[in-house]
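Fig. S4 source data, part A: sequence.
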Amino acid sequence: MEIDYRKLISNSQAPFFTRQNLEVLLGSNRRTLDYRIISLIKAGLLARLKPGLYVNYAFYQKTSAPEELARYIGCEIVRESYISLEYALALYGVLAESVYTITCVTTQKTRTFRNDFLSVTYRNIKPSLFWGYTKRQYGDLTYRIASPAKAMFDLLYLTPLRSDSAVREFLFGSRFNWEAMSRADKKELKESVERSRSSKMKKILRYLAEKEIV
């Protein structure tokens, strides 16, 4: 009896699949599997993120919180990562602009995954700076997101700022709403700089202190 592979996928509660996952569900014969994957994509049940990685678009369409699901998927497809940088700062109201690409930091290589409904960019950070995030609940699932202070630290640390004037322009232009960061956030930012022992970040902290931002 032939399996109803479309029904199998549309009823699945898995947010995404690897090719290995699909081999278990749809059969391991290479040509048959390729045909079924292409059919599922054409039917709008799967969406390809990269070779061997597919979002369960049927599940995505059913969720009441698609953006939360996208954040979860972003953290799961590169397991050692957390949401940070521009996307996190926009969520917290610190970045005065809309950000649609989910931005993460990871100890792995820099890369971007993108399809028609999901775009995730990963920036590399050294393992000694991989901290400052909490776990956020999405139904039975959890994903990792930086605190406002660590998201700001990560952005400042990873942005090339090659002169004092570039640093000042970046910090004090209209891009950041510093008032959206609480006193506790600013204290955490100072502690993050001290913990990092980065000369670049210490200089940035001095500029922020001069303007009485921290």
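Fig. S4 source data, part B ends here. The CA atoms of residues 28 and 82 lie 33 Å apart.
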